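re: that chain from earlier
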Amino acid sequence: MNKKWLTRKQNELATDLFRNFCLIHLELEKEFSCFHQTGEIRFKPLNELLGQEMAQGRLWLLKDTAHLLFRKQAETPLSGIFLDWSIAYIFHECMKLREDAYQLQTYIPWFQFVQSDPRYPQREQEVGSNLFRLASQTRESINKEVHRIQFILAESKNIFIRYLPRHDENQILARFLFEHEKRVRDVFQDLHQDLIQAIYGSNPETMYLLAARHLLQGNWLDKARDAVDRAAEINPEHDDTQHLYHRIAQSADRF
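^ sequence. v structure.
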C-alpha cells in the first residue's frame, strides 16, 4: 500500500471508520435488544452485516479499514492499536454469533421434530435427543458472545474519545458530526458531550466552522449556512463566521 496515498487519505479513512462504527453499533444494539426480548438471535441481519469474502458487509469493511488505518502506519497511537484490536474482536465474535444463529434457526427445530415424530425408531430419537442437548448449548454461547460484543462496543466509544482529538482539524469528520448529530448522539448518549469536548476542547463552534468549509467545497450552501448559524449561536464573535457568511453569499450569487 502506497504510504503517500495512506497519508493523503487519513482524514477520509478515519471518518469512514467512525461513520461505520456508529452505523454498526446501532444495528447491533437493535439486534441485541430483540435478542434480550425474545431470546432469539436473527441470522439474516448478522449475515448482511458481515457479508462474505467476495461481497463484504459493513462490519467486514470496518475491520479492513481499521487494519489499513492502524497497521500500515509507522506511528500508530496506542488508541489506534486498541481500536484495531477491538473492531477485529467484534468482527470475529459476530462471525461466531452468525454461525450460532444459523444453528438455532436451522438445526434446533429439526432435532426437536425428530424427537417428537413417532415415525422415527426409538434409537434414532435417542440419538437426536443427544444431539439436541449438545446443540442447545448454542444458546449459552450466544449469551456470552452478545455480552462480549456489547462490552467491547462500549469500550470502543471510550477509545474513540481518546483517538479522535488527533482529527480536530478534519473537515470531513466535522461535517459528519454536524450532519449526523442525532445518530452520533444515539450511539454515544451521555458520552456525546465528552466526545465533542475531547476533539474541540472549549471551542465546540470549531466543529461547525470546519463542517461549513467542507460543505462549501461541494456548494452545499444551505447546509453550510446552517453550520455557520450553529457556530454563531455558540460564539457570535468568532472571526470566521462573518468570513464564511460572506463566502456563502458570493457562492450563491454565482448560481
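Residues 170-255 form one domain.
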